[in-house]
Design goal:
The structure holds 2 protein chains of 2 kinds.
Chain A (H helix, E strand, L loop, with lengths): L1 H34 L11 H7 L4 H6 L2 H33 L1 H14 L8 H8 L3 H25 L3 H9 L4 H39 L4 H10 L3 H29 L4
Helix pairs in contact in A: 4-5, 4-7, 4-9, 4-10, 6-7, 7-9, 8-9, 9-10, 9-11, 10-11
Chain B lengths: L5 E12 L2 E13 L4 E5 L6 H9 L6 E6 L2 E2 L7 E4 L11 H12 L3 H14 L15 H14 L4 E5 L7 H18 L2 E5 L3 H7 L2 E5 L6 E6 L8 H6 L1 H22 L2
Parallel strand pairs in B: 3-8, 3-9, 6-7, 7-8
Antiparallel strand pairs in B: 1-2, 1-4, 4-5, 9-10
Classes of the chains: A mainly alpha, B alpha/beta.
Bound molecules: adenosine-5'-triphosphate and magnesium ion.
Chain lengths: 262, 261
Amino acid sequence: MDVGSATFDRSSLVSFAKGTVSLAVVLVLWEVVTQLGMIHYYFLPPLSDILFATDSSFVALTADGTLIYHGYLTVRRALVGLVIATVLGIAVGVLSARSKIMSWFWDPIIEVGYPVPVIALVPVFIFWFGTGDVSKIALVTLGCFWPVAINARNATREVDENLIWSARMMGTSDRELLRRVVVPAAAPGIISGLQIALPISLIITFVFEMVAGGGGLGHIEIQGVRSFDSVQVYASLIAIMILGFALDRALRILRHRLLAWT
Amino acid sequence: MVEGHVTISNLEKVYESGGERTKAIDDLSLEVPSGEFLSVVGPSGCGKSTLLYLIAGFLDESAGTIAVDDVPIDGPGTDRGVVFQDYALFPWRTVMGNVTYGLEQKGVDKKERQDTAQKFINMMDLDGFEDKYPKELSGGMKQRVALARTLAYDPKILLMDEPFGALDQPLREALQDHLLDIWRDLEKTVIFITHDVEEAVYLSERVMIMTRHPGTKKTAVEIDVDRTQPREDIIMSDEYTAMKNDVWQSLREETKPQAQL
Ligand SMILES: Nc1ncnc2c1ncn2[C@@H]1O[C@H](COP(=O)(O)OP(=O)(O)OP(=O)(O)O)[C@@H](O)[C@H]1O
Ligand SMILES: [Mg+2]
C-alpha cells in the first residue's frame, strides 16, 4: 500500500513537472530576452514589469482597484448576457426539438443566424442601442444564444425515446414531460452549450469595450495602447485571462455537481 | 380480481417513414385473459416489439382495436407497465428515485412511496443500492431496477420486450424464477416477448407464435405444466419436451425460408 501510494505520488509529481516545464521555459525565455533588450519594450516588456515592477503593472493596477472595478464591469456584462441567452436558448432549443411549429419557425433562423460573426455587428448595435451596457449585453445575448440553442436542440432531439415512453406510461403528462424528463435527459448537452457560450460572452464584451469604451477590461487595454503604455495592455490581458479561467473552472464545477450521474 | 384482460381485434400497423410504407402487423386478433402469462415468439423483424408498443399505447394502430377490460386504449396508461430490453432507467435518478417515480406521479406521499419502493427494491435483492445511479449498476441489476420501477406503481398488465435477452444464463434463470414468483403473488397479466423458445415455454401458460413479416398470429400452444415443481423436474418431463417441440417446429417453419437466404 505505502509503496504503491509513494510511487503514485512521485509519478504524478513528475507528470505535473513535465506538463508545466515547457510553459516555464517560455516564461523564463521571455524575461531573459526582454531584459537583455532584444525586443523593443513597447512590443513586449519584461514579464516582471508587467506583473509587478511598474506603476501600471498587474499588481499595481489590482492594488489600486482599477483592474478589480473594470474586471467587475466586464464580468457583469458578460454574465448578464450569458444568463439571458441561456434562458432564451434553452427554451427555444428544447421547444424546437419537441414541437413541429417551433422547429418550422426556428430552424431556418438558427441556420442563418448561427454562422454570422457577431463581432461584425458591434457597429450595428452601436447604431441601435448606443455604446452603453444595454448595447453590450444585447450583443452578448445574441452571440451566446446560438450555441446554447443549438446544443439544447440537438441534445433534446437525441433524448432516448424509451425514456419518454417510460415516463408517459408512469403517468407523466405532456406538459410535465419537458421538466421531468426531457430537460434532465438533455442536461449534459445543454451544459456543453453553456461551456461553449461562456468564452464567447467574454470575447464579445471585451471587443465591444475596446471599440465603444464605457469602462471594462477591454477599455483599459485599448487605453494602454493609446497612451503607449504597453505594460497596461498586458496587465489587462492577464486580468481577462484569469477571469476567463476562473469562470470556466466554476462552470466545470457546476457541471460536475449537476451531472454527478453521468 | 378480474382486471387486466386484453382484447386485440383485427390489429394492423403500417409504418410510414419518408414515403415508404412498411406493414409490420397484419390483421392480428388475440385475447389475453386476466392474470394470464402469455409469451410471444416469432422470427426477428416479425413485429413483436411493434405489437407490444401498440398495446402499451406508444404507437397508434393503423386499423383494428386494442381494449383493456373492454375499454379501448387511448395512449399510454398506468394500467400497463412496460419493461424495456435496454432498461430505459432515468440515468439522473438513483435506484430509489427511479422506483419512486411512478408513485410520485400518482401523488403518493413521500413516506408511503419510500416504503413501497423499498419493498420492491428488497424483493429484487437490491437493498444497499438505493442511492446508486444506473451507471454504477451491472446489466442484471439495471434490469431488476427496471422491473421494480414498473411493479412499484402497480400496473395490472406487464408488457415485457425481451427483458432478459442481454443477460447471462444463470442470471437469466434466476430472474425468470423471480418473475414467476411475482406473477403468482401479484396476480398480473403478463405479455412476454422473447426469441428464446425455452424461455417462452418455461415461463408461460400459453405461447403465441407469430408468422414472419408482416406478423400476425400463427398459432398458440397451451403450456400445461405443474409449476409447483422445481425447474429441473419441469424441464426434464416428457410433456414439457413435447410442448417445447411443438413451439419450436412451428417457429422453425417461419424462420426456415429466411435462414436459407
Ligand atoms: N419506426 C419504424 N419505422 C419503419 N419501420 C419500422 C419501424 N420500427 C419497426 N419497423 C419495421 O417493422 C417490422 C417489425 O419490427 P419490430 O421491431 O416490431 O420486430 P421484432 O419482431 O421486434 O424484431 P426483433 O425480434 O428483431 O426485435 C420490421 O420489418 C421493421 O423493419
Ligand atoms: Mg423487437
